[in-house]
Amino acid sequence: MPSLKDLRNRIASVKATQKITKAMQMVAAAKLRRAQEAAEAARPYAERMGEVLANLAVAFDGRDDAPKLMSGTGNDQVHLLVVATAERGLCGGFNSNIAKLARDKARSLIADGKTVKIVCVGKKGYDAIKRELGSYVIKNVDLRSVKTLGFADANAIAEDILAMYAAGEFDVCTLFYSRFQSVIAQIPTAQQLIPADLPKAEAGAEVSASAVYEYEPSEAEILEDLLPRNISVQIFRALLENAASEQGARMSAMDNATRNAGDMIDKLTISYNRQRQAQITTELIEIISGAEAL
Amino acid sequence: MAELFQFELVSPERQLLSEQVVEVIVPGTEGEFGVLKNHSPFMSTIKPGLLKVRKDGGVVEEYFVRGGFADVAPSGLTVLAEQAVRVADLDRAALAQQIRDAEEDLKDAKDDASRLKISDLLSQLNEVQNALIPA
């Protein structure tokens, strides 16, 4: 049975923890709002990009001279997995969910006899993956020093990936990140980057609209220019979604922690009071029986 | 009365402009071009340069854009630029930095093709800087 002093210390320490988790929750809530705004602001660009690409891609569908970024290298022996996670922990299952999805994918690829290479974006994902698949990790991008995520950050990652693709170091590239659905739901997602997974524009109205389009320079050159750019945009969007998801996950994790700390304080206070009363009762009995003995 | 059309200027970070305008002059890769209402459907990549927007009432706004493309559709003009800044907010030091970066890249370039590409970029950036100096 812990003494009264022990209990008092324990209550004080849980209270201190509760204060910290509560502060972290409020910080996460503020950051979440900003991250969500950033993700929303980036949406028009990505959407327009997708529309234009889909229009252009129709013209090249099934043609031999289609750019390699769209048609692929023709085989799928070497897979590159880009795993985007957070730089910080204490956000529930956020990091481990993404890492788990990537690990499962890597395992099944290895079982099929494919070669796997992994690029980690974010420290936590690297920590989770290196234990089992450390030898496959070829690069670890550190974004810890980045305060507000800019397009330039995503661009740098994309350029690395494109340089590796141009050098023939992989055939298929898949990006892992967490899609932000709501504060309580973040969905770990795998998205194929290379060869580009383009939504096919519906035949009919849209195709006829693009038929009268004039292109300057030629369609092929525009497509060649757009595809690498699309990779950057996709990565940028994924990083922004990730940032929002991370804050959402942290917010709910810290909310839970605060509530648990509250429950714990209630329980500890009850046993503290009981023990205090028991002690008073004992003292009273001692005094009374002492007085009676006289 | 000038006719208006919908113009949107979007960068990856945010949407800078979305409103009815009279005329937009876009720095296309193959030359500048102006867009008025009812322009035929047209698409072009853009080079680093100044994009001029003439709004209703004749007010002209200038933006520095770099990398991206312009899409003229019947519904209006959309410019997707990798980088877009209002000229008034443009940081000259940042532009100078970009020029220095390009100069360094030029020195490091390995083959003729990439050297050509970078020197193109460099001359376009210099052009922008020269255009801005009297302003």
Overall description:
The complex is a heterodimer of chains A (294) and B (135). Chain A is built from 7 helices and 6 strands; from the N terminus they run ααβαβαβαββαβα. Chain A is of the alpha/beta class and 294 residues long. Chain A has a single domain (22-253), classed as Pyruvate Kinase, Chain: A, domain 1 (3-Layer(aba) Sandwich), CATH 3.40.1380.10. The model of chain A is unreliable at 201-210 (pLDDT under 50). Chain B is of the alpha+beta class. Chain B is 28% helix and 45% strand. Chain B has a 5-stranded mixed beta barrel. In chain B, helix 1 packs antiparallel against helix 2 (112-132). The radius of gyration of chain B is 16 Å and the shape is globular. Chain B starts with a strand and ends with a helix. The mean pLDDT of chain B is 83. At the A-B interface, helix 1, helix 5, strand 6 and helix 7 of A face strand 4, strand 6 and strand 7 of B. Strand 6 (214-216) of chain A pairs parallel with strand 4 of chain B. Chain B: Pfam families: ATP-synt_DE_N (PF02823).
Rg of chain B (CA only): 16 Å
Q: Class of the largest domain in chain B in CATH? A: Mainly Beta
- Assess the beta-strand content of chain B as a share of residues: over 45%
Main β-sheet, spatial strand arrangement of chain A: 3-2-1-4-5
| Number of domains as seen in the coordinates of chain A | 1
Order of helices and strands of chain A: HHEHEHEHEEHEH
Question: Keywords for this structure?
Answer:
heterodimer; A: 294 residues; alpha/beta; Pyruvate Kinase, Chain: A, domain 1; elongated; B: 135 residues; alpha+beta; ATP Synthase, domain 1; 5-stranded mixed β-barrel; 45% strand; ion transport (chain B); CF(1) (chain B)
